[in-house]
Amino acid sequence: MKENIKILFEHYLAGKTNPEQEKILMDYLADPTNADSEFHETMEKTWAKQANEPDYSATAVEGLAEVWSKVEERQPKSRLLFPFVKYAAAIVVIISASLGWYAYKKAQQPIETGISFLSKTTQKGEKVKLILPDSSIVYLGAGSKLTWPSHFVKGSLRNIRLEGEAFFEVKHDASSPFIVHSGQMQTRVLGTSFNIYAYPKDGTFSVAVRTGKVKVSESNGGKLKQLSLLTPGMKLLYHLKAHGYAISNGRITEVNAWIKNSFAFKDVSLPDMFQSLERYYNVHFELKAHKLNQCRYNATFTNKSIGEVMEEIRVMSGKKMKYKIDTANKTITVWGEGCQ
């Protein structure tokens, strides 16, 4: 049996196993009684065939993305995400070998201990400041979710996952690149400050850089494609469905303006603006006139109540847009003849 498992493990790393064989392998590895020295020796020999440097290739990153998805599938509602449920040891062992973490795992901790993760989800109208294990700072926007490991390993990738919006102030560490995974998009830095907008339902993804340099890539079908290197003042806007993107230069002060309750919109349609305002102010919009869908605005709202924001939008529309705020139900009904 053990000999078959060793062969199966080697085939797995070579990408030659089918789902049924992978299940057999994970069932075996998930059993703590099977974590014997013979298997470790097999892993060590297999690892010796790999490159000595950590693997940052598209294949390795894609493998890590699978781990992230399994973490999210199995996580409880509480903040602390304990080691994976059934296949914890198996997943960690296999991905460790693929990503270049095996040497550390073998020397520092038992392989079967798994990985613990922390997670924070904000509600509409809420934003929080988080400090990661490496002292990097994250400002998490409304209606967003951040997931990160309980500790980072020196010399290995600092991988975290974001759904929503966040501004990052990353502590510089040339030996440990910091990578933010947002759906099929990946943002990689060494130490810098930047903003990511990645709400899955919006269909758009953006990265805006305040300091340092950021590399943005797209993961598609297991292949990692670099889109652009961004420097201070640059912003990349990516359309998920069309797989197209554009790069612009903006004002650095707008990158993280929302942290100080300043919301900037540039050539944004009214429905898209309302979608963002719903998150920022924890309200719900009901747009009753289709003509208003074509209205586009440039606007910045700083320390304004939602009532003040709506009044400014009404004025910008040439007073053709009308609205009614239902405070009790946190609902804003909008109608009108169009825009100016």
UniProtKB/TrEMBL annotation:
Membrane spanning stretches: 84-104
Keyword Membrane included in the entry's annotation: yes
GO MF entry, a single one: sigma factor antagonist activity
One Pfam family, short name: FecR
Ranges for domain Protein FecR C-terminal: 263-333
Protein keywords: Membrane, Transmembrane, Transmembrane helix
Chain ranges of the FecR protein domain: 121-215
Protein name per Swiss-Prot or TrEMBL: Anti-sigma factor
Organism expressing this protein natively: Pedobacter zeae
Lineage, uppermost ranks: Bacteria, Pseudomonadati, Bacteroidota, Sphingobacteriia, Sphingobacteriales
